[in-house]
Amino acid sequence: MPPISMTRSPGRRLARAAWLACATALVFELCAAPAHASEGVHSDPVSQVALMLAVLLIAAKIGGDLATRVGQPAVLGELLAGVLLGNLDLLGFGGLEAIATDPMIDMVARLGVIILLFEVGLESTVNQMLKVGLSAFLVAVVGVVVPSLLGWLAARWLVPDASPYAHVFVGATLCATSVGITARVFQDLNVSSTTEARIVLGAAVIDDVLGLVVLAVVAGVIAAADRGTTLSFLDIFVTIAKAAGFLFGALAIGSRIAPHLFRLASRLKARGVLLAVSLAFCFLLSWAAGAIGLAPIVGAFAAGLVLEHVHYRDFADRGEHELEELIRPISAFLVPVFFMVMGMRTDLSAFVQPGVLGLAVTLTVVAIVGKQACGLAVVERGIDRLSVGIGMVPRGEVGLIFANLGLSLKIAGKAIVDSATYSAIVAMVVVTTLITPPALRLSLKRAKRTATG
């Protein structure tokens, strides 16, 4: 008689995870009705926020675990978990709708975006950006211009009744590339040192910078329209110069100030000085970006780019952890909240509306085709251009940041992006994030066989 295996099958693990997710949702539904319904009973408002955060974090980790088990990035699982919780009312469960619109949860999610862009900046350095070469720069430029143009045309064609600003914004959401997802695939395949990988990762970093500049311009145009004015070409040039000037100014000035700042901070004997000073630096640049009319995430990204290991090596000499390690627990708390909230704001019922599904499919196709044009911009010979184009496809967290901004930018009190268009954009982000890892693996293996054969 064969021994009884004590290992749970993947099907049982999936069923158990699904049961836990439903149980969590049920607990929240039971608790969603305020326990202080009786008059005169006082309840601390933070208790309800704590419950919401508990539900979001548990669901995010379950979703992330399931995605990782099937070879997908955890961020995709977190996003899909949010979509599930946000649409449980379609299955007869209620009480979760308040999470997506709760102002305190929204603020936590916004902090998560700042920390996320700070982390993305920390993963790269100014020197890396300067050394990526001509191909990476051209790939990034093409990867911003072509998808944005195609997205604008698609929006004009499929959503003709929307404002011209909505068409431009939809196009802008297609320009970004998620450097984290592509980098993870290169690491898993042990090809991070190849020329294709260096071009894609370098281009993705520049792509993020250009995308933030585009975001600043589009947001400026929409803000002017909300005031009843228009931006002239001079105003647009000033907006671009402001965004570029802030980025390069922050990098230049910050690179000079950061070493002195952290050298002084290293003299403090209190615990957690490196983390506190780094976050303060990030928040200060985020505030500065907002003060001149840019998105705070621009400042957070610049802060991450500025800070390098050499700036805080005095802390390492006394045995403290690397800054990336110190940020990771905070990121593990705040960033999943952002992805969960973004998912919960996706209305699946919107896809039954005429044209929404078609818009989602078209945007996905345009997003993929637009990035394939990147491969044509590679100037070196012997490079697998298909792999370069596929590596630039995933929109991931950056695309969600853009999409979320469309819900907050308003003209005459109306969001520039409605729920249906937002849901179509999220679908595009999910699909491009989902298909990139297996497609890139196949393309790189094909290129390797071709090179060796």
Task: Report on the architecture of this protein.
This protein has 453 residues and is mainly α. The chain is 73% helix and 1% strand. A hairpin with a 2-residue loop joins strand 1 and strand 2. It is globular and about 60 Å long. Residues 1-8 and 33-40 have low confidence and may be disordered.
General shape: globular
Number of helices: 19
The rounded distance between the terminal residues' Cα atoms is 49 Å
How would you classify the helix and strand content by structural class? mainly alpha
**How are the strands of the largest sheet arranged?**
1-2
Tell me the fraction of residues in β-strands, as a range. Answer: under 5%
Mean pLDDT score = 78
> What radius of gyration results from the CA coordinates?
23 Å
For the report, how would you describe the main beta sheet? 2 strands, antiparallel
Order of helices and strands: HHHHHHHHHHHHHHHHHHEEH
Helix content: over 70%
Uncertain segments: 1-8, 33-40
DSSP summary, beta strand count: 2
In summary, what is this structure?
By secondary structure, the protein is mainly α.
What is the fold's blueprint, element by element?
Blueprint: H1 10-32, H2 46-69, H3 74-86, H4 97-101, H5 103-122, H6 126-131, H7 133-158, H8 164-173, H9 179-188, H10 195-226, H11 233-265, H12 273-291, H13 296-306, H14 313-317, H15 323-344, H16 356-372, H17 385-391, H18 396-408, E1 410-411, E2 414-415, H19 419-452
Antiparallel strand pairs: 1-2
Helix pairs in contact: 1-2, 2-3, 2-15, 3-15, 5-13, 5-15, 7-8, 7-10, 7-16, 8-10, 8-18, 9-10, 10-11, 10-17, 11-12, 11-13, 12-13, 16-19, 17-19, 18-19
